Amino acid sequence: MTNDRRITIRDVAEASGHAVSTVSNALADKRHVNEETRKHIQEIAKTLGYRPSTIARALRMQTSSTIGVLVADVANPASPEFIRGIDDVAQREGCNILLCNTDGDERRQIGQMQALLDRRVDGMILLSQHTESPEIRKLLDATGSFVLVQRRSHRFRDDYVGSDNMQGTRDSMNYLDSLGHRRIGFVTGPQQSSTAMERLEAYEQLVSELGLDADPELVFQGDYTIDSGIRAMHYFAGLSDRPTAIIASNDVNAIGLQDAAVELGLRIPEDFSLLGCDDIEIASLRRIDLTTLRLPKREMGAGAAELLIRRIRTKKTGTPREVIFPTHLTIRGSCAAPRR
Amino acid sequence: MTNDRRITIRDVAEASGHAVSTVSNALADKRHVNEETRKHIQEIAKTLGYRPSTIARALRMQTSSTIGVLVADVANPASPEFIRGIDDVAQREGCNILLCNTDGDERRQIGQMQALLDRRVDGMILLSQHTESPEIRKLLDATGSFVLVQRRSHRFRDDYVGSDNMQGTRDSMNYLDSLGHRRIGFVTGPQQSSTAMERLEAYEQLVSELGLDADPELVFQGDYTIDSGIRAMHYFAGLSDRPTAIIASNDVNAIGLQDAAVELGLRIPEDFSLLGCDDIEIASLRRIDLTTLRLPKREMGAGAAELLIRRIRTKKTGTPREVIFPTHLTIRGSCAAPRR
DNA sequence: CGGGCGTCAAGAAACGTTTTCTAAAAAACG
DNA sequence: CGTTTTTTAGAAAACGTTTCTTGACGCCCG
User: Fold this and answer.
1) CATH assignment of B65-163+297-324, given 2.60.40.10, 3.30.450.20, 3.40.50.2300, 3.90.79.10?
2) How far apart are CA A26 and CA A31, in angstroms?
3) Segment A134-177, tens digit of pLDDT
4) pTM of structure
5) pLDDT tens, residue by residue, A291-324
6) CA distance A152 to A159
7) CB < 8 Å to A64, chain B
8) Are the beta carbons of A118 and B53 separated by less than 8 Å?
């Protein structure tokens, strides 16, 4: 509107009668610069409302104090919690985050990563992203510092933050077993998802350990969407020998199962016990009332950010670290003893 | 890991035996540069895997091709839909978006806006943000181009994208009136929210037009959270002369009302008809089954982005534009004729 | 045949910082 | 009092681009 040009360090220099370099040093509180002139310069800078250009600084310092965050699905209620955790520590460490939504689409993810690299982010956090293909791998290499969350590579060893899928699945299975279920359906996530695979493996192991029905029919290949839950419920309901309990791939998926159950005139937990994963906010609603495996999402986000920042600061020294968070079975009303 | 230094335009210049400026022109497909050398340079650039630094470019061009998006609450299921709309057109126009979560907190918003300015974004889109205080106003001025969404200033005239609150409220009220409700409760959003105030005004006008009970007791001062919905339901249930229907501030709020109703042993729609606003995904779940006013969120996001980009391109010429989207009453099972 | 013009390419300046290097003044030291 | 060291401040280079200016060359036209 009024005066368009941003005021630069140069303006401060002229106004204070000092050199640009002196101003820079004075404002950064570095070097040997006389206390008096420092005060003076800081005064001037303040009254002028000077704000250094992040861009110019990034160009000069070759570091942007920015970290890229790639999330598979912002619309999933679990995502904002992770992001919040990341943001908390990023803020604290003086970093900004650049948030990208990939929709779980690899092409899109590549585009986003490329854009982040062009923007010279200091590092990336990848929530449930693709990690294997050579193209992705090349981009990760170029990134230097990155942390994977909830999906790790089986071929490469990276910094990783995840949940204890063995323990979580064990808790879930033990609980259903203790209620008397012998036939437990399982909706598994995408095959590229290491978390999904680990849980599936744990499920199979527990089925064997507990001597439950081991039937490939009981595993439904799904993903993390409501739609997939709806399909899964139609599938399980159509089986001649139905399971009495179902473990969903996550809460959103469980809600789909639940919804389809209502549609089919089936009741939860009477006809099916239902067990989710994540513990999103609405899982606790009385109309939903979902027993679920709670993930400490905010803590995991914070953990990922801390891991990343350490990695950035120590400049890729040291072997990859993995941080695994415990889960907590949160019991609500969607599970009961089988009637059959 | 291997070779850390990024390859620059200079590397391309040397490799191709041309000057930096020529390379720049060749890659930008601009100016007069021989078709042959252009091909040659583009070839070299490709094999070298050259990618221009967004940062350097931004510094030189004084424009970052980045737009800041401030959202009050990423966790609200409606937010990602707006964002998606914004992202769609931003992507198409070659812009990246910088997403910030403000929690509806003014201090936080100021900090985020400051950071965006330091980053020299070309413009901002503010979803339900503070717009009035002098401090915010100064930052908006400095931003140059910005678009408000769902919350406008009553003192300033800005580019704005919103929904037709009069028409929407009219549709809702007419619908409840046609079902036979004479006493309609209303949860209003925060007083700083222009949308909330417009709806409240519309509500009052409609109450008068339709000759319904006009009782200040029927208006509950809430906000857009589940918690506020819970409090509202306790409030309405505690009235000696209860309403027979309640209009929530939005869907998330309605879900809170619904949940508290279950807690209090009240049934919806038998004891209370309930009407939301937004039409978030879970509103259509059979367990929720919420009649609600649908907002075209994705379209609104896209509209905001288009408005902003036009504003940026035409460099703040022209009077402020307002784009108002119509709403659509989506009838599900949470409303019925009153029993009393 | 000389001047103007069009085409192409190179050179140099600029964007706003930080940092390195240099210079001057002040202080310390013998 | 001269020399060295320390403190302070300024000049200049650099980060990686784009764009403005300059220059060389060939061609057309009077």
Assistant:
1) 3.40.50.2300
2) 8
3) 999 999 998 989 999 999 998 999 999 999 999 999 999 999 99
4) 0.89
5) 999 999 999 999 999 999 999 988 667 789 999 9
6) 9
7) 55
8) yes
